[in-house]
Amino acid sequence: MKKVLVLGATLLSASILSTAALAADKEVTVWSWFIQSTMQKSIDAFQKAHPGIKVTYTYYNYSPEYITALKAAAASDSLPDVIGLQPGSLTQQYRDHLSPVNELAAKEWGADWAEKVFPVNRKQMLMGNPAGDTNYYIIPQESQVLCVWYNRKIFETLGIAVPKTYDELKAAAKKLSDEGYLPLFQGAADGWQNENIFLMLAGQFAPGLTDKAQAGEAPWTSPELVSAMKAWKALFDDGIFQKGALGAHAYPTGAQLFAQGKVGMMALGSWWMQESKFPPPLSQYVQNMDGFDFFYLPAVPGAKTASPPVGGVDIGYGLTKNGAKNPEAWTFLASLTNGEALQEALNDLNDLPAFAGHEPKGDVSDHVKDLYKRFMDDLPKAENQRFAIPAISEALDNALAAVAAGSVDPEAALNNVQAATDKALGK
């Protein structure tokens, strides 16, 4: 009898161990450039709500490490379950490796779930899809609004008012430079930051025209876009950008100098609020964002209005075809974009939500609450920031760099973008 009891106990222990092993085997693999410390908080919240699922996250710097890793994994059919994506060109590059999530999302959040996503995000979720393809291959996690941030303490010390005209912007840049600060820091070695400024400028002359141009519905050489390109060159010539901008990078160089109080202004976006939530020593110069505020680029010569809000999806996630075979992968993706894992990212002020109905909780200063509200008020009316086809954005990057360097005039540069667009669209 005693042997039977021991055997029974042994079998019971083996059963428990086997069950635990099976639970541990429910793993979700995720790759992204999303900040590790914030992602870990999201994973912890998810695993607390779903104790039988383990999430293994691999972080990469976006460029070139993440892009290189994705290409290699796609070529060998070894992509993880969930991958970080930007809408448009990056999503389309990997569309053949992604699984549509329409049905899963409808089951998770209801048939009208997409209506809860902010309009500019909804548009970007389908950007670049083949005609007639209404599938969603990306679920947005966070949104962003582009703007010009400024150091309030430096402005107050030097007696600089927030610029409301181009002349005031020039005067502010000169004052900053004269006093030993970098004026409006531009990481002009980074195509993405140049694109952002150009889209701000284009929106002053003709909101939405760049969308029509990249779709082949309007010429890149439209007078409004030529004016925007001339205004882009003037930012260099008028000393609004810092000297040496063409060789500078926004991250890490510009962002670090800005955080340290050595830069007066920098074109970034709503994500800058997260600086106050980074662990020391990264946050030592930014306490509750009290020293920072933002404005929109004032009207340049020839334009009638300041730059409209520009933005959309900051980061989203796709379910790979490998991940579609793993039911737990969607469970995590849903949590990360519209559940408990998302909430942790918002609490870290990582950026704005992509779905309506969310806001940060916890230790948030009154000043940050005000910044957040202003961004959220502007998000529903934001102009599109993204490009559907990589070749077009690359051509625009090259055009902006050439014009800034003075090697190509604005109209000729935009002719080159038009040629690249025609080729990409098969015209």
From TrEMBL:
Q: Name one GO cellular component term.
A: periplasmic space
Give the subcellular location: Periplasm
Under the heading InterPro entries, the entry gives: Bact_solute-bd_prot1, SBP
Keywords in UniProt for this one? Periplasm, Signal
- The signal peptide, as residue positions, is 1-23
User: Gene3D superfamilies recorded for this chain?
Assistant: Periplasmic binding protein-like II
Q: What is this protein called?
A: ABC transporter substrate-binding protein
